[in-house]
């Protein structure tokens, strides 16, 4: 089997554990979410919209990769934190985000878990483009840190 981000947990974690690379990816992609507790957060609906997939696809990936996603910042909020999150949505004037008043718990992704979903999704062209951008940024970041030069990045989205 060909090794790439969609099927290599080690490669995904190597990127997701590199805080410097994550910061560079966040700056370069300029993906907008909700600022909450000093992190950028996304609802399942926001993730599904970005990747242009059905929300059930996101739910299926969450079910299949729940441990990995939780390790990378996916969580269910409720109670006081949920109330604060709803207030943050109102303050951000984000009309596309709809969290019902009767919602008692909400799944949210931070930027790392958002990237994690993008690395896993095979049904989304936006996810494929994001994976390629991630690899380009990570290789460039490593080269900047080590003083090396990028030789090439193959088109299948694998690091070689």
Structure explained in plain terms:
By secondary structure, this protein is an alpha+beta fold. The protein has one domain. The chain contains eight helices and four strands, in the order ααββαααβαβαα. Strands 1-2-4-3 form a four-stranded antiparallel sheet. Helix 2 packs across helix 8 (125-146). The relative contact order is 0.20.
The main sheet comes to: 4 strands, antiparallel
Oligomeric state of the chains? Answer: single chain
Question: How many independent structural domains?
Answer: 1
Mean pLDDT: 86
Number of helices: 8
Distance between the termini: 15 Å
Numbering strands along the chain, what is their spatial order in the largest sheet?
1-2-4-3
Shape descriptor: globular
Give me the secondary-structure category: alpha+beta
Parts with pLDDT < 50 across at least 5 consecutive residues: none
* Run of helices and strands: HHEEHHHEHEHH
Please report the total strand number as a whole number. Answer: 4
Radius of gyration, rounded? 16 Å
Beta-strand content bin: 5-15%
Helical amount: 55-70%
């Amino acid at each position: 089997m060909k090794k790439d981000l969609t099927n290599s947990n080690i490669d995904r974690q190597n990127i997701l554990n590199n805080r410097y690379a994550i910061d560079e990816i966040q700056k370069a992609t300029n993906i907008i979410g909700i600022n909450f507790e000093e992190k950028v957060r996304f609802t399942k609906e926001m993730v599904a919209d970005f990747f242009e997939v059905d929300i059930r696809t996101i739910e299926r990936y969450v079910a299949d990769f729940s441990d990995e996603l939780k390790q990378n910042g996916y969580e269910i909020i409720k109670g006081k934190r949920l109330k604060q999150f709803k207030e943050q949505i109102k303050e951000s004037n984000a009309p596309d985000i709809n969290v019902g008043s009767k919602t008692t718990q909400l799944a949210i992704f931070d930027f790392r878990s958002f990237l994690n979903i993008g690395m896993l999704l095979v049904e989304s062209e936006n996810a494929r483009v994001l994976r390629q951008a991630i690899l380009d940024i990570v290789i460039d970041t490593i080269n900047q840190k080590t003083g090396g030069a990028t030789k090439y990045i193959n088109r299948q989205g694998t690091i070689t």
